[in-house]
Amino acid sequence: MTPNTADIGAILISSRSLDEYRSMFDLSDDDLSRRILDCPAGAAGFTAVVNRLGGDVTACDTAYSDAEHLTVVAAAEAERGNRYIRDHAENYDWTFFADPDEHARVRRQAVRDFAEDIRRHPHRYVAGWLPSLPFPDAAFDLVLSSHLLFSYADRLDRTFHLDAIRELMRVARDELRIFPLVESGTSVLCPYLDELLTDLREHGIDGEVVEVDYRFQKGAHHMLVCRRTGFP
């Protein structure tokens, strides 16, 4: 039986690496030199590693309201995600990761990077709740958002998606990139994507579906790139 998001349980606090972000969002070296917001960032190692390399990334997530607890939970969540993947290995394309063991190693390292960085640089990790973020307009050059919007389309309705994307665009000076466009645990495209793109155009936001190189969850190889159209 094809799994659905109910099989996954609670929304996963994920821990992805810089290499995953590069592939998921088609990030160039120039992109990584921009001021970036990652929202929701979960326990990803992206903020830690990019800032260590001289970048400027801010992470935002609801989970940061209890950051000390999150550093404990993140490791358990990485194991929960890996168990799910092992149990449903046939629904994954083993291209980016060679096998579930490599997936586990990468995610555990991302957790370690995250845990060390949030302890040493807590100001980089801002508690925030979509669709109302604690940042001024156009505060970031580039906004990245992964594995919440569209991934949980069975729980987060079209109105939430519209409000969340408009808010993410409010804090973006240039563009927003969202990945993936399929529901978690499936290869099924979000059922209201076309209607949502129409909604966004009515609010002066153009959404372009762009294929990326990342191959892991089957069917999940597109991101949505949003930019302002100037209208209305």
Provide a short characterization of the protein structure:
Helix content is 38%, strand content 18%. The chain is α/β, with parallel strands linked by helices. The protein has a seven-stranded mixed β-sheet with strand order 3-2-1-4-5-7-6, with helices on both faces.
H/E element string?
HHHEHEHHEEHEHEE
Write down the Rg.
17 Å
In whole angstroms, the N-to-C terminal distance is 45 Å
Q: What percent of residues adopt helix (DSSP H or I)?
A: 25-40%
List low-confidence stretches. Answer: 1-9
Mean pLDDT: 91
Give the overall form: globular
Structural category is alpha/beta
With strands numbered from the N-terminus, the spatial order across the biggest sheet is 3-2-1-4-5-7-6
Put simply, the count of helices is 8
Beta-strand percentage range: 15-25%
* Count of distinct strands: 7
How many domains, as an integer?
2
**How would a crystallographer describe the biggest sheet?**
7 strands, mixed
Topology at a glance:
Elements: H1 5-8, H2 18-25, H3 29-32, E1 35-38, H4 46-52, E2 56-61, H5 67-87, H6 100-120, E3 125-127, E4 140-146, H7 158-170, E5 172-179, H8 193-202, E6 205-211, E7 222-228
Parallel strand pairs: 1-2, 1-4, 2-3, 4-5
Antiparallel strand pairs: 5-7, 6-7
Q: What features would you describe in this structure?
A:
This protein is of the alpha/beta class and 232 residues long. The chain folds into two domains: 29-129, no CATH class; 140-232, Rossmann fold (3-Layer(aba) Sandwich), CATH 3.40.50. Helices cover 38% and strands 18% of the residues. It has eight helices and seven strands. The chain has helices at 5-8, 18-25, 29-32, 46-52, 67-87, 100-120, 158-170, 193-202, and strands at 35-38, 56-61, 125-127, 140-146, 172-179, 205-211, 222-228. β1 (35-38), α4 (46-52) and β2 form a beta-alpha-beta unit. α4 packs across α6 and α5 packs antiparallel against α6 (100-120). It is globular. Residues 1-9 have low confidence and may be disordered.
